[in-house]
Amino acid sequence: MADDDLLLGYEKDENELWLWDDLPELHMEVGYRINRLLHFERSAYQEISVAETSAFGRMLVLDGVPQITEKDGYIYNEMISHIGLLTHPNPQYVAMIGGGDCGPAREAARYPDIKRIDVVEIDPRVTDVCQRLFNRSRAAALDPRITIFHEDGARWIQKQRERIDVLLIDRSDPFGPAAVLYSRAFYQHVYSSLSYDGIAVFQSGSPFFDMKGLKTTYHRLQSLFPIVRTYVTSIPSFPGGIWSFTVASKRHDPLAANTDKLPAGTRYMNKAIARSAFALPEYIQDALRT
Amino acid sequence: MADDDLLLGYEKDENELWLWDDLPELHMEVGYRINRLLHFERSAYQEISVAETSAFGRMLVLDGVPQITEKDGYIYNEMISHIGLLTHPNPQYVAMIGGGDCGPAREAARYPDIKRIDVVEIDPRVTDVCQRLFNRSRAAALDPRITIFHEDGARWIQKQRERIDVLLIDRSDPFGPAAVLYSRAFYQHVYSSLSYDGIAVFQSGSPFFDMKGLKTTYHRLQSLFPIVRTYVTSIPSFPGGIWSFTVASKRHDPLAANTDKLPAGTRYMNKAIARSAFALPEYIQDALRT
Predict the structure, then answer these.
(1) B281–A276 C-beta distance less than 8 A
(2) Is A197 a catalytic residue?
(3) Where along this sequence does the record place binding of S-methyl-5'-thioadenosine (chains A, B) (predicted)?
(4) What is the pLDDT of residues A161-184, one digit of tens each?
(5) Which of A219, A233, B15, B116 is the most exposed, fewest CB within 10 Å of its CB?
(6) For A279, which DSSP code?
(7) Mean pLDDT of A257-277
C-alpha cells in the first residue's frame, strides 16, 4: 500500500513496513516487521489485513489489532474449543459466534459424532480472506457439517431457543463490532439458546491486564449458570501471554470432562492440559473470589 | 539522561522517553513508555537502569533488556524457587546463581527450616540498585540467613562440593555475562556442587521462541541427572509470556513434592500450580521427546 493509504497500525520506516499494536492504557507498543503484506481492504465493518511476520508467520489484523496468527493460532483454537466439547457427553449441535477464520470450527469437526457446526461471523470479508490465506480456514470450510452465517451474532443467538449443545463465543476485544457480545442481555440470550444441558465457552480476556473484564464476565455468568469456571492458557502473540476463557454450564462440570474423548492431532491440548488449565494462579483466584 | 547519553534501548520521542526491547531474530520490538527514569549507570559489567513503566511499574533493565518488574516479578521469583524447595524433603543449604535482585532468596527465606541462603551475583551494582529501588530486595537483604557473594557464579560453583541441597540458576539470556552459565562444563559443576539428594532448577527460556535453547538445557541435564523435568508458567513481561524452568534432581521427583509445605503468602504459586506447571502443551512435549 502507498504511504498515504496505510491502514490502522501500519507504519513505514526506512522502506520497512511495521505493524504497531498499540496498548494505550498500558503505554506499551508491540511492533512486528512485515515481510509481506498479503492483503488489505476496508470492509463494511472494519479494516482487514493479512501480514506476513517473522515472529508469527501470517497474521490476521482487524482495525490494526492482531487477531490470530499462523504460528500460534492453534493454541487459541484448541483452547476455546475442546474444553466445552469434552465436557458435554454427546454434543450434536455446536455453534460459534465470531471466529470467521473457522479455526474453532475445524477443532469441532474433529469429533465425528457432532452433526452440525454453525459459524456466525458478521463480516463476510473476514471469512473470505481467511479462506484464501489460511490453510486451516480452507480445510474447515470443506467439512459439510459446517455452515457459515454472515449475521450479527447478538441477533442470531436470539433465534436459537434451547437448541445448542456447545456454544463458543470467539469474540474480539470489547469495543467495535464485538462490544455487544459483552452486554448483560447477551449473556441472557446465550443461556436461552442452550439445550437443557448446554455449555457456553467465552473468550474472557487477559487476567493480568484486564482482570476487571474477566471478573465482569465471570460474575454475569454466575448469576445465570449453576457451573462457571475460568481456565487459562499461554498465547504468545497475545499481550502478556496469559489468556482466560470462561466456561458456563447448565449441568456438566468441566472438571469431570471425559478427556479420553480428545481427538488425535491437537498440538497444544492434551489430557493433562484439559485438567491443568483450571489450576489458576493465586492472583486470579483471589480476584475471582471477590 | 541527556539525549547524547542514552543507554541501550532507550529513545526519546517528542519529549517522551521510551524503552525498546528489541527481539532481532523475531523482527519484533516491544516498547514501554517510561514515566520516570529512577536510576541509570554503567557498571563494570553492563548498563543498569531502573525505569518506571505504566504496564509493569518499576522495571530493572540490564543492557537494554527488561529483567524483572514490580508488577509481575513475583511470578518469576515464586516459580523458580518453590518447585525445588518443595521437592527436597529437608533443604538446609540453598544457593542461587544470578538474581542480584534477591527475589528468589526472599522466597527461600519463607521456609523456616532452611539454615543458609547464598546469593551469587557477579555485579555488586545490581544488588545495590535493587536494594535501593525494589522493596522486595530490601526485605530479603535483612534476613540473616542470606549472604550475597559478588563473584562469578561459574567459578563460585566449582568451590562447592556436594554441599548444596537446592540450587537455583537464575540466569539471564545466553549472551553477555550469563553465557558461561549455559556451557556444558557448567552443568557438570552444578551436578558436583549438589548434595547426594540435591536439586537444581534452571531458568530455561521461552519454549515458543527458543525451543532449541530449552532442548539443549534439557538434554544436557538428562545426561547427568536421573530425574529431569521441565515446567512452564506465564510471565506477562517476558516475550511471548510462556516461560520454562527445568528441574534436575539426584533423587527426589518433583511430581511427588510435598505441596503441603508451601509457605503462606505466595501470589502466584499454590498447591495446584505446583503440580499443573508440569502439564506441558503438546508442542513442548513433542519437542522434548526428540
Answers:
(1) no
(2) no
(3) 46, 121, 152-153, 177
(4) 999 999 999 998 887 778 889 999
(5) B15
(6) -
(7) 97
Eight-class DSSP state of A210 = -
Report the distance separating Cα B231 and Cα B220, nearest Å: 16
Map B231-278 to HEC letters: EEEECCCCCCCEEEEEEEECCCCHHHCCHHHCCCCCCCCCHHHHHHCC
> What are the residue boundaries of the structural domains of chain B, listed by start?
3-67, 73-289
Q: Which helix (H) or strand (E) holds B159?
A: none
Q: Which CATH number fits domain B73-289: 3.40.50.150, 3.40.50.20, 3.20.20.100, 3.40.50.300?
A: 3.40.50.150
| Per-residue cell: B262 | 508451601
Find out whether B106 and B94 touch, Cβ atoms under 8 Å: no
> Cβ(B105)–Cβ(B98) under 8 Å?
no
Map residue A259 onto helix, strand or coil: helix
Grid cell for residue A108: 469441532
> What is the value of ipTM here, to two decimals?
0.94
Instruction: Name B128's Cβ contacts closer than 8 Å, sequence gap at least 6.
Output: none
Rg (CA), chain A: 18
- pLDDT of A1 reads 59
Query: Which stretches does DSSP call E strand in chain B?
Result: 10-13, 16-23, 28-42, 47-53, 57-62, 65-69, 93-98, 116-120, 146-149, 164-170, 194-203, 227-234, 242-249
B103's enclosing H/E stretch is: helix B103-108
Sign, CA torsion A211/A171/A90/A227: positive
Name which CATH class applies to B3-67.
Answer: mainly beta
d(CA B30, CA B22): 7
- Between CA A38 and CA A53 the distance in angstroms is 11
Mutation for testing the B interface, residue in A11, A27, A53, A70 having most B CBs under 10 Å: A27
Q: What is the pLDDT of residues A87-118, one digit of tens each?
A: 999 999 999 998 777 899 999 999 999 999 99
Strand partners, B34: B17, B53
Dump pLDDT digits (tens) for A130-149: 999 987 777 777 899 999 99
Concatenate the DSSP letters of all residues of A212-258 into one string: HHHHHHHHHHHTT-SEEEEEEEE-TTSTTSEEEEEEEESS--GGG--
Instruction: Give the total residue count for chain B.
Output: 290
The mean predicted confidence, pLDDT, of chain B is 94
In the numeric block, the cell 541462603 is attached to B117
Chain B hits for A53, Cβ within 8 Å:
27-28
Per-residue pLDDT of A230-266, as tens digits, reads 999 999 999 999 999 999 999 999 999 999 999 999 9
Mean pLDDT of B7-20: 91
Q: Is the pLDDT of residue B250 over 70?
A: yes
- What whole-number distance in Å separates Cα of residue B164 and Cα of residue A45? 62
